[in-house]
């Protein structure tokens, strides 16, 4: 049930996968995620199988241990054919358990390799978001379950080793009894116990050392796998950073070109703005001149009107005898009188309008003051009502207290009288408050009636004001009829059109200047492109140097391989590249460690038979080779980072040079 629950917990939602397949644009990343998911499901199934198998093996081991305890009891009494058969069965079961545990250990190694592959594939798909987090969580869960199963396998190995110790000690004591043929039955059990204790101690020491070495080997393998992953990740990050640097450099050049173009456009716009302001100042000056001319023309017209009036007076004097002239004079006088009367009526209407407006303002002020009084009265009424409510509540409380105190002792009669006085005073205050509230309501009604009367007066005054405004508008229309006929405005329009044409010619000149500026900008861009080509050539030269260094490294590695052929026992094999070399060394160290473990077990077995205190000499594979390879990979990555830093510094220096150089060149071209 545990294995099934682990598998069900680690299954990924297929809808999430379909959603990411629909949103992502790169099918390679989807393929990598799918492969990693398949690997993880396979790993989960294998882990479930191993956990079930471990449980079954533990049950079998418990059965074998109970069986062996029964055999030891039988061996103390007598050695018979049944005892030999049972011991052979136990040995067969022990060998079966040992082979199954070794097989499980090998499957653990394959599962570890699969997890490393899945981790490497997932490192390429970090930007997928939620799907990446789900798969990574599944990977961590499978790693945890792998560690737990490895611990169970180690415990199983330890139990098997102890079982082997007891069985070997038992067989050894049996062979000693057959060879030496000890006759005394009292000495035989003591010797068996002493030899068992001694052999058990020695084997426990050797097994503890072997387990420590296995743990160290696994830790070193895990560290080596982590280092490989880190190296691959650093290489991927370096590649991505290089691509990002190229993209940023391209964007930087584009931004620089756009900045230069925008600087030119802004300067053109500033020049055009200055020209427009200069033209506006000229237009304002000309407008002032035209206004002065208009005023002079009006003065001339007035003088001409005066001269015409003088001529008319002279004509009237000359035609004084004519009756028609007299009739005309009378009509003119009548018209002048009517005009004067109309002007006087206008003045009176304006004065009355002003008076009405003053009255309206006074009435509005009065209304506002009355509204404020109304608000104050309402607030007072509300406060009075609140006090009345409070007083009624207090009166009710006092009446309750009086009712309570009347039923109490006679000594409280004085207090009752005081409370009755207080209640009477409170009733009087309540009456006063009610009277004040009624008076406030009456004042409020009076104020409302006064406001209504004032509003009716304001409406009447507004009607009168509207009539006066109509009369004033009629008078203004008559005045505008006299000022409409002005022919000089057409002349000014013609003059302005001529000036607009001159401005258009100046704009055409400005456009020609702008074209010349764009040519200068194109020349500057050519210079920038030449500089970019030079940078590209420098980059190619640096890459060639890097290739030369890699060739030198390869030659050094070949020399190391030739040197390693002189020492085949140390586990150095031929390598084609850095990463396969690390895999070969790992495999060789693993094989040598397994071989050394088998030799150690044989030596311990021989020592337990022949020598009382054997020497446990366990040798490891030479770790200097892995250290040298790691140092070489680290030095190579450091050299690559130093070259990249030098390239970035060269780019920054050239960018600063062009940033400081382009505006001066543009200013010279603009000047």
TrEMBL record:
Q: Where is this region: Disordered?
A: 606-630
Coiled-coil intervals, chain numbering: 325-401, 458-513
Q: Give the keywords, sorted.
A: Coiled coil, Membrane, Transmembrane, Transmembrane helix
Looking up InterPro entries in the UniProt record yields: WIT1/WIT2, WIT1_2_N
SUPFAM superfamilies the UniProt entry points to: Tropomyosin
Q: Which Pfam family, just one, is annotated for this protein?
A: WIT1_2_N
WIT1/2 N-terminal helical bundle domain segment(s): 35-170
Q: Which residues cross the membrane?
A: 639-659
Family annotation (PANTHER family): WPP DOMAIN-INTERACTING TAIL-ANCHORED PROTEIN 1, WPP DOMAIN-INTERACTING TAIL-ANCHORED PROTEIN 2
Q: What is this protein called?
A: WIT1/2 N-terminal helical bundle domain-containing protein
Identify the species of origin.
Answer: Mikania micrantha (bitter vine)
């Amino acid at each position: 049930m545990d294995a099934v629950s682990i598998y069900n917990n680690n299954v990924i939602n297929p809808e999430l996968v379909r959603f990411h397949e629909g949103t992502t644009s790169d099918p390679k990343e989807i393929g990598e995620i799918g492969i990693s998911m398949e690997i993880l499901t396979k790993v989960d199934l294998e882990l479930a199988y191993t956990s079930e198998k471990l449980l079954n093996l533990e049950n079998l081991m418990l059965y074998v241990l109970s069986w062996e305890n029964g055999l030891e009891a039988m061996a103390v009494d007598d050695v018979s054919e049944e005892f030999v058969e049972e011991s052979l069965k136990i040995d067969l079961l022990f060998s079966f358990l040992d082979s199954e545990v070794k097989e499980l250990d090998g499957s653990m190694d394959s599962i570890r390799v699969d997890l490393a592959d899945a981790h490497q594939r997932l490192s390429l798909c970090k930007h997928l978001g939620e799907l990446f987090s789900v798969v990574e969580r599944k990977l961590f869960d499978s790693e945890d379950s792998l560690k737990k199963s490895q611990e169970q396998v180690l415990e199983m190995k330890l139990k098997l080793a102890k079982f082997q110790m007891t069985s070997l000690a038992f067989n050894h004591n049996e062979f000693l009894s057959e060879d030496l043929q000890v006759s005394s039955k009292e000495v035989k059990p003591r010797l068996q116990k002493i030899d068992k204790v001694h052999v058990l101690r020695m084997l426990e020491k050797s097994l503890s050392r072997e387990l420590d070495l296995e743990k160290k080997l696994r830790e070193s393998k895990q560290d080596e796998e982590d280092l490989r992953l880190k190296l691959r990740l650093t290489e991927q990050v370096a590649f991505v950073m290089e691509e990002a640097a190229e993209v940023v450099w391209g964007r930087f050049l584009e931004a620089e070109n756009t900045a230069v173009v925008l600087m030119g456009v802004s300067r053109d716009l500033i020049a055009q703005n200055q020209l427009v302001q200069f033209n506006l100042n000229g237009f304002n000056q000309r407008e002032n001149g035209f206004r002065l001319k208009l005023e002079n023309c009006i003065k001339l017209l007035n003088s001409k009107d005066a001269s015409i009036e003088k001529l008319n007076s002279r004509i009237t004097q000359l035609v004084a005898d004519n009756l028609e002239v007299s009739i005309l004079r009378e009509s003119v006088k009548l018209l002048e009188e009517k005009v004067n009367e109309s002007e006087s009526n206008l003045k009176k209407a304006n004065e009355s309008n002003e008076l009405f407006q003053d009255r309206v303002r006074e009435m509005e002020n009065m209304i506002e003051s009355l509204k404020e009084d109304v608000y104050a009265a309402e607030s007072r009424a509300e406060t009075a009502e609140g006090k009345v409510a409070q007083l009624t509540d207090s009166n009710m409380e006092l009446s309750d207290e009086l009712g309570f105190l009347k039923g109490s002792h006679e000594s409280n009669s004085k207090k009752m009288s005081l409370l009755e006085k207080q209640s009477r005073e409170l009733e009087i205050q309540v009456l006063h408050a009610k009277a004040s509230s009624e008076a406030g309501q009456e004042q409020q009604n009076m104020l409302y009636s006064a406001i209504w009367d004032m509003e009716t007066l304001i409406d009447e005054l507004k009607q009168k004001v509207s009539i006066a405004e109509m009369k004033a508008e009629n008078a203004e229309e008559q005045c505008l009829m006299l000022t409409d006929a002005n022919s000089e405005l057409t002349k000014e329009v013609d003059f302005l059109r001529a000036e607009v044409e001159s401005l258009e010619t100046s704009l055409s000149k400005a456009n020609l200047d702008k074209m010349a500026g764009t040519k200068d900008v194109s020349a500057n861009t050519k210079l920038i492109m030449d500089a970019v080509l030079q940078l590209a050539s420098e980059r190619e030269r640096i890459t060639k140097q890097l290739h030369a260094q890699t060739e030198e490294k390869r030659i050094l590695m070949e020399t190391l391989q030739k040197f390693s052929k002189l020492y085949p026992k140390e586990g150095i094999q031929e390598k084609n590249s850095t990463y396969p070399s690390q895999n070969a060394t790992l495999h060789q160290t693993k094989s040598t460690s397994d071989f050394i473990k088998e030799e150690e077990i044989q030596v311990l077995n021989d020592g337990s038979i022949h020598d009382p205190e054997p020497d446990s000499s366990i040798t490891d594979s030479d770790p200097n080779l892995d250290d040298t390879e790691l140092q070489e990979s680290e030095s190579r990555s450091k050299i690559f980072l130093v070259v990249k830093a030098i390239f970035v510094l060269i780019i920054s220096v050239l960018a600063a040079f062009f940033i400081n150089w382009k505006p001066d060149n543009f200013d010279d071209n603009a000047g």
